[in-house]
Design a protein that fits this description.
81 residues, mainly beta, 1 helix, 5% helix, 38% strand, acyltransferase activity, transferring groups other than amino-acyl groups, HAT_MetX-like
């Protein structure tokens, strides 16, 4: 598995309905620094995944996993979350 799973439990929706056993799949790249100020949250786009987000960052680019701690979160309904 190349990702992590965060269990949300039961989530209340705006409609009043409840989503039981909800979870988010995410992947991290790089390391969190001591001051914890190098985080970049990169949510996925519709039909995207953490794997497809990998094209948006890289060594020597604006978002660089050697400098930043990138958290790529899969949106609900994309096949992972």
């Amino acid at each position: 598995m190349d990702y992590e799973k965060y269990e949300l439990g039961t989530v209340s929706l705006l409609s009043g309905e409840k989503l039981d056993s909800a979870f988010l799949i995410y992947k991290t790249y790089g390391k969190l620094n001591k001051s914890k100020d190098n985080v970049v949250v990169l949510p996925t786009f519709y039909t995207g995944s953490h794997q497809r987000n990998e094209g948006f960052f890289g060594i020597g680019r604006a978002i660089d996993p050697e400098k930043h701690f990138v958290v790529s979160i899969n949106m609900f309904g994309n096949g992972f979350s």
